[in-house]
Amino acid sequence: MEARHLRYALALAEHEHFGRAAGALGIAQPPLSKQIADLEREVGARLFDRTRRGVFPTAAGTAFLARARRALDEIAAASVDAARAARGETGRLRLGFIASALLEPLPDVLCRFGRERPDVQLELHEMATSCSTSVLVAGDLDVAITLGPPRGVGVERLVSVPIGHDHLIAVVSSSHPYAGQPSVGVEQLRQQPLIVASGEDEPAVITGLRALLGEDSPALSGATVARDVHTIIGLAACGMGVGLGPSRMLSAPRPGTWFCEVTPRTPLPDLVLSFAAQDRSPALNAFLDVIRKNCPDVGIALDHRLGARGGAHRGGMR
């Protein structure tokens, strides 16, 4: 039994005449009569009464037609659903990210993606860079945003592209002696209680601080360790010391705080977006398209990694 048999039966029931039904279907009458007879043999029941007044469904035919109509509706819906999934309008996207990515650029990207792809199920997982890489390689994430490029087993199968550049800055309360200063130097930092992110969540910040202040710096060894940059800003606002973190903190101004540049300028590793080179998920392709729209420079780098001809639909080398 094929979908066309269902359409033939419904057309015959609507027109109550083989000739009129055949005309509506765009076929000749003899093939229609044969197809209906074949259908009745397959079902094992007479579906239509042939009378001088016309052709009418039997009780069995009425029951069959009700199911046939629903089946054709489901087939049509299945085609629509398949087309939407192929365009990345439905499906699932699993995103792992470090907390500071919520300062920039994730808010604009996620808002735009939600507007353009409201029926894609977003699964968001905040996790440290060291964790997200292994989860991504294992196939349990579709895309990850990390501080610095992924490292470890399997990273050669990933496509990675920088999506943000950072350097070290300081944040203090508005009542702190450094408030109002455009910058603070290394010697000033050594004389203040410091607030830093944990090495697990922002390892590059710790590495940069050790290079800046010295591997065995008392100021660093006695620093307050915060879970993420949001906590650093909050503790600095409470007057607990000088918070040190990535320049993305500038996108999250808070009343009662002041941001200073740190001199000498200390670059931090880039914020990096990574995904499996062989991933053909339409939802991932749709997400990358939003990245391109929001971050044109990133889009150029993406196309370079993936190959100009393949775009988001081709794998590439890191």
TrEMBL record:
Q: Which UniProt keywords apply?
A: DNA-binding, Transcription, Transcription regulation
Which residue intervals define the domain HTH lysR-type in the entry? 1-58
- Output the superkingdom of the source species: Bacteria
For this protein, the record's InterPro entries field holds: LysR_HTH_N, LysR_subst-bd, WH-like_DNA-bd_sf, WH_DNA-bd_sf
Which Pfam families does the annotation name? HTH_1, LysR_substrate
Family the UniProt entry places it in:
Belongs to the LysR transcriptional regulatory family.
Q: What is this protein called?
A: LysR family transcriptional regulator
